[in-house]
Write the structure tokens for this entry.
Amino acid sequence: MRPRLEARLGVSRTMVYATPVMALLLTMAFGSILFAALGQHPPAVLYAFFVQPISSAYGLAELTVKATPLVLCAIGLSFGFRANIWNIGAEGQLTLGAIAGGGVALWAGENAGPWVLPAMMLAGLLGGAAWAAIPAYLKTRFNANEILTSLMLTYVALLLLSYLVHGPWKDPQGYSFPQSRMFADSALLPLLTMGTRLHLGAPVALFVALAAWWVMARMFIGFQIKVVGLTPAAAGLAGFSVRRLTWITLLTGGALAGLAGLFEVAGPIGQLLPSISPGYGFTAIIVAFLGRLHPVGILLAGLLIALSYLGGETVQIELGLPLAVAGVFQGMLLFFLLATDVLVRYRIRWGRKVITQEAG
Amino acid sequence: MKVPFFKHTTILLGAAVIAAGLATTAWTEPLKVGFVYVGPVGDHGWTYRHDQGRKAIDKAFGDKVKTTLVESVKEGADAERVIRQLAASGHKLIFTTSFGFMNPTLKVAKSFPNVRFEHATGYKQSDNVSTYAARFYQGRHIAGLIAGKMTKSNIIGYIGSFPIPEVVRGINATTLALQKVNPKAQVKVVWVNTWYDPGKEGAAAKALIDQGADVIMQHTDSPAAVQAAQERGVWAVGQASDMTHFGPKSHLTAIVDVWDSYYVARAKAVMDGTWKPGDTWDGLKQGMLQMAPYNAAIPADVLAMAKKAQADIIAGTLHPFAGPIKDQMGMQKVAAGENLDDGSLLSMNWYVHGVQGKLPK
């Protein structure tokens, strides 16, 4: 007898909202076994992982700083994913946004006026969008698979950044180490509270999430995106242009990723480095699906994933647990989130499929 | 006379409990020392050696210190948070052990004037930030001499991490030494753009072997290249740690970083209140750099040459960057009878004559 998954007829709305909580509880239960096996006191580890990182104003600010690029990228990706357009290259678009926006900061130099930040943001948006335009063109013109083209362009973007900070944009006073000059103060994002790194990017990300919700729920373009994703044939009959939606979703995704990249270099980093992102563009794919491609869900998922990084650091510092244990724990969280999600939508049946009337 | 193991443990445990009890009553709080690593402790290379240094502090001061480590911290926005968290949680001495942690370290140091920071391989100091590094190039010279004698194909493969001065210096030191003993030998460089990625490092080693290299050198942190060399039956030189057991047949020697005594001295200075910022660049002489045991397959005359070079560098009679030195284009960079000064060494961004390929810009 082999188990198989059978789609449930109706998905319980309560269960959809309850699954993340169930997943969290399951993670805590199995995590506790893991921690106890390592000779730790499980409640202490859970406290250090989930509570301690956000038990101060500074910690909350750090959580937001970490979640901002994840949320921005994931919101951008969710438009495309809803319409079955699979942009895997947000990391590259993020990098290009950082290059374009950072380039403006370096070009403006020390004498930059108050116009430089808006110009950098615009350049970040355009840089990311331009990088996403390449897969959009290749897809609409040659029907090239955007999964491959967007992913491959990520590596091109990283090498371009590497070239710039090793070559033309290298800090002349930097002993030929690969990094740009530090940005002038006027080219750095204003901090929202003293003593933290909370910057302008956080409210922007929040605004983008709300705007995305409005677009998807209230605007015609949002309706088109959903129809193309759910039933392409119906979209064709209704005369929705898949070509146009491909361009719109990829450009939006690229622009938001580019903005996220600019916020990283103009915010917490303050200069261009060979590596500016620990893979936010890729993690954002997980965030997008964890948030069920819904803007509010993405906001929460972004905060949860950000917390799991902060918690991973805290258990190392406070309890001396190795990073690998934090990684296993993060993996458990994702596993249970996905598993509960599957079981809410499908039931496990044993044996061969029996054809019944209700299955039709 | 054999005493059952558990008896020992019980006695030790009992002693430890009593000692701990005494400690809390008799002594003040332990000094908290934090470490930020760029790779995992188990990289068997760079980070592993720094963690040995951390353990040396533990061993030297016992209950008087408490050390903390955070591993695999990304160079970028994350580093500042980790360093700040260590400073805010009462760590009074913090070692940040990768070049990319430089600006975050300085930023955090500004807001924690009472915390001392030690940054490895950087060049910016402040009132509470010191820098330190080892003169890896001295070891590269010895490795280059051995490689020049051991190679049959006259091609040395070199796996570079990032084209920063520290790495370029290593390639140049190797090449200059190589040419001393084997003018026909060449160095081929592959850049992997990472400090730690066993997959990439192993692939780079195989690519170099396919191009005819029969000695593989690395400036990356995992033993993958040594393993690849062992598999393909060519020689390898390890980096940062003794990597012999990853390729007992291939491993000629390794340039081993020994941070232990520096770390212990700095922790002691903080305890005694004598810590001062500065820049330390020690080498074979001070023992911050050591050569791993030489492979038994190295012929006696080659071994003697390597050991003599080691002794001469320690004595100060041999400088790996003694003139005349020409760059790739044949332009003279150092005149005969002169040595390249430390400033030029620290900012080195050109290849010496004999390195194949162009330095990535």
Notes: The first helix of chain A runs from residue 13 to 37. The mean pLDDT of chain A is 90. Residues 1-40+321-360 of chain A form one domain. Residues 79 and 249 of chain A are 6 Å apart (CA to CA).
